Amino acid sequence: MQTQMINFSIPKPLLSALDEQAKSEVKTRSEAMRDAIRLYIRQRQNLDDIFAYGKKQAKKLKLKPSDIEKLIDEYRQGK
């Protein structure tokens, strides 16, 4: 796998936390960053899939945003 070096700024406390976590997992800083980026991408893709499914269902059921808000409110009130 080809790699490319990148540079970016990160607050010192966050970098310290990253280094501590990497050390506890016996990983390099770079390995920990790659893992964090993979996790972020996977979570965003999962959220995108969930929202796409919700939009598809809303379209199928011909729901408007106001209908969805009403259904959420009713659910929260136990109706």
Describe this structure in words.
With 79 residues, the protein is an all-alpha fold. It has one domain (12-76). Helix 1 (12-24) crosses helix 2. The chain contains three helices and no strands.
Relative strand content:
under 5%
Overall number of structural domains = 1
Overall helicity: over 70%
Which overall shape is indicated by the principal axes computed on the Cα atoms?
elongated
Helix and strand pattern? HHH
| Rg on CA atoms, Å | 21 Å
Low-confidence stretches: none
Termini gap: 54 Å
Helix vs. strand class: mainly alpha
Q: How would you characterize the largest beta sheet?
A: none
Number of helices: 3
Counting DSSP E segments of at least 2 residues, the number of strands comes to: 0
Question: What's the rounded overall pLDDT mean?
Answer: 94
Would you kindly provide a brief summary of this structure?
With 79 residues, the protein is mostly helical.
Question: What attributes does this structure have?
Answer:
79 residues, mainly alpha
Break the fold down into its secondary structure elements and pairings:
Blueprint (H helix, E strand, L loop, with lengths): L11 H13 L4 H32 L4 H12 L3
Helix pairs in contact: 1-2
